[in-house]
Amino acid sequence: MSKLELQGVSFKYPRGKRLIFQNVSETFESGVLSSIEGESGAGKSTLLSLLSGLALPTRGRLLMDGEPIRDMTLYRREIAATVAQANHLFEGRTVLENVTYPMLLKGIDPASAKEKALALLSEVRLDSELASHFPSECSGGEQKRVAFARAMALDNPVILADEPTANLDKDAARVVAEILQSLAHTRGKLVIAATHDPFLAACADLRLFLHEGFLERR
Ligand SMILES: Nc1ncnc2c1ncn2[C@@H]1O[C@H](COP(=O)(O)OP(=O)(O)OP(=O)(O)O)[C@@H](O)[C@H]1O
Ligand SMILES: [Mg+2]
Q1: What pLDDT digit, counting tens, does each position of 160-203 carry?
Q2: pLDDT reported for residue 218
Q3: Are 146 and 177 in contact (CB under 8 A)?
Q4: What is the number of domains present in the chain?
Q5: Which of 9, 11, 13 for mutating ligand 1's site (highest number of atoms within 8 Å of CB)?
Q6: pTM higher than 0.90 for the full model?
Q7: Over 90: is that where the pLDDT of 1 sits?
């Protein structure tokens, strides 16, 4: 896949009073890191939910390579991988088990899953010693990197990250920004990050702002 397109998308939560977006159209491409900025409550996380197939537009469509996405379950499983703000790591499983989990679920044999997980942990610059630790034994920055390694496990072409540098110090934020850039530039992924962080936004190739329901390029 190379293009993900919002076409005339409006969205209102079922119990919400207002339209969060109005007629938003934008195209995201493989190999490009995009950032979405906006004030708190502007709708960044909601937009990521739409792009990840977790919420459906009230009006408008999501297209992949020019075709409307028909099977959202398949899209969520095989196309879009998400790193949530809170990571949602499995607390009772080790770092290694967190990363192998999606692969085992898909039926990949345990030895190959382990090998790939260790390679991913090294790619996100985590020491292999951490593999046997539990998430609670990792720093915030390390947990974030585990979440990225897990999101990369099935090699999905779209990676969506919600506030990936929130609560991280400068050095940890820089590592996360480098991971996002390498996903886009080296692995050719389509990467989108919602962020408050001007440093991360400045690392993006395409910088978007969400304001009063409109998405603008700047
Ligand atoms: N389930 C829901 N039902 C109704 N309204 C909701 C729901 N979830 C979020 N909202 C509202 O939608 C708006 C956008 O929320 P969203 O979480 O997308 O903003 P955000 O830009 O990610 O904010 P932040 O920077 O604080 O993370 C907010 O006004 C919020 O109150
Ligand atoms: Mg948010």
Answers
A1: 999 999 999 999 999 999 999 999 999 999 999 999 999 999 99
A2: 81
A3: no
A4: 1
A5: 13
A6: yes
A7: no
Give residue 196's domain range: 3-217
Query: Which residue is it, tokens 């969520």?
Result: 76
Cα–Cα distances (Å) from 202 to 64, 124, 187, 193, in that order, read 26, 21, 20, 12
State in Å: Cα 48 to ligand 2 middle: 9
Q: Give the three-state DSSP class for 163.
A: coil
CA–centroid distance, 128 to ligand 2, in Å, is 32
Ligand with the closest atom to the CA of 18? 1
pLDDT at 23 over 80: yes
- Tell me if 79 sits within 8 A of 157, measured CB to CB: yes
Q: What is the pLDDT of residue 153?
A: 98
- Cα 54 to middle of ligand 2, angstroms: 14
Which ligand is in closest contact with the Cα of 15?
A: 1
**What is the DSSP annotation of 148-204?**
HHHHHTT--SEEEEESTTTT--HHHHHHHHHHHHHHHHTT--EEEEE-S-HHHHHH-
CA 161 and chain centroid, separation: 3
Confidence of residue 107 (pLDDT cuts 50, 70, 90): very high
Residue nearest to atom 17 of ligand 1 (CA): 45
Residue type for position 108: I
Domain CATH for 124: 3.40.50.300
